[in-house]
Amino acid sequence: MNRRSFLVSLSTLAVAQLLSGCGTVDRQTLKIRLLKSSIPAQAMGAFRKQLDKGAVLNFSPAEHLDELFRLLQQWKKPPSNNSDRRWNLPGSNGDAGPSNLADLVTLGNYWLERAIAQKLILPLDPTTLEQWDNLPSQWQTLVRRNAAGKLDPKGQVWGAPYRWGTTVIAYRADKVKNLGWTPQDWSDLWRPELRDRLSLLDSPREVIGLTLKTLGHSYNRDRLADLPELKEKLLALHRQARLYSNDAYLQPLLLGDTWVAVGWSTDILATMQRNPKIRAVVPPSGTALWSELWVRPAGPNPVNTETPPPASSLAKQWINFCWNPEMAVQLSQLGKAVSPMLLNRDREELPPALQTDGILLPTAEAIAKSEFIEPLTPEIAETYQALWREIRLS
C-alpha cells in the first residue's frame, strides 16, 4: 500500500512544532498523525494563521499507512508501566503511550472496517462538518458504517475523506510505439505482445477485480464460482506477468524489463514527473478507487460509540479547513491525489492543470464506473484467496 505523494517532508516541521509547544500545557493543542507527504507544509502554515496565537499544532508523519493502523492498535491497549515509554526516540514505541494519543490520524479505507470492528476509532458528527453535504455521495457511502465496520446507509460517519486516487495502467511509450497501439483499457493486458512484459500488483482484490471488470462484473462480486470463465482469464493474465509486487512494480518499467504496469496513481504520477517515457491511462471501463481519511483514535478507555464525546474544536476546524473549496483545490494542485470536494465542482472552474490531467482527475464517466474495494465476509474472502493461490501456483 505504498501510495505516496506531495512535495515536502514534514519531519523538520514536526520537530519545530514539538519544540515550540514546550511550556504550552494550558494552550489548545491539535495532535495529528498523518501519512508522510500527504499534506504540504504550506497548508499547515495557512491553517496556523487562522488560529489563536496560543494554539499549538503537532503534525507528526509516518512513512506508511500500516504504521498508523498499528499505532491505533497500540493506543487501544491499556497503558503499561514500561519505563521505555518515557523516551520518544526514532524506532521506539514512545508514540504508543496514552499521553501521545492524537486528535486525528490518517487511515486508508482499506483498514476502516477493521479499525471500527476493533473499536480503535470513534465516529464523527457530520452536523459539525461544514462541507459534509458537499462531499460526493460515493464518499459519504464509504464512511457510513455500522458498529462492525460494514457499509450501512444508516450507519455513523467514521472518517473524513481528504484525498483519493485510482488504480491505473502505466506504460513505456518508447517500448510500445512500434506495436501500433497503446494501452487504453484492462482488456489490453491480455494482448500477446505483452507476454512476460507486465508488472502486476501483489493483491488478489486488485488483480481478480480488474479481471472481473474486464468480464463486465463488479470488483466486489461475491460469487466467483458462478463465473467459470474467470479462472481461465486469470491464468491467461498470469502467463503475461513478469512479476507481482506492491512496492517494486515500477522499477522494471523504468529499466525496460517490463513495458506495462498496473499500479496506484500516486506512485505513477510521481514517476511520470521524473521520467517522460512513462505514460498512464485510467481504464474507461472503470477501476478501483482508494481514499485516505481523517479518523478519531479511541484510545484505551471504553467509549459508547452510539453517543461518543465530541471531537475537539481544533480537530473539526482542521477537517473543515481541508474541505474548504479553495484549500481543496490547492491540496490537489500540490499533490499526486485530489480532494473528493472537486468532484461536485464544474471542471471549467478548476485550474487548467487539473482540468487536463486525466490521471490525477479522471473523467466523470470513468469515475462513475469505478468502485471502492469493499470488505468481504470471511467466507467470500477465502474464495478469493483460494483462487489467488491456485493461479499463482500454476
From TrEMBL:
<keyword id="KW-0574">Periplasm</keyword>
<keyword id="KW-0732">Signal</keyword>
<dbReference type="Pfam" id="PF13343">
    <property type="entry name" value="SBP_bac_6"/>
</dbReference>
<protein>
    <submittedName>
        <fullName>Extracellular solute-binding protein</fullName>
    </submittedName>
</protein>
<keyword id="KW-0813">Transport</keyword>
<dbReference type="InterPro" id="IPR001188">
    <property type="entry name" value="Sperm_putr-bd"/>
</dbReference>
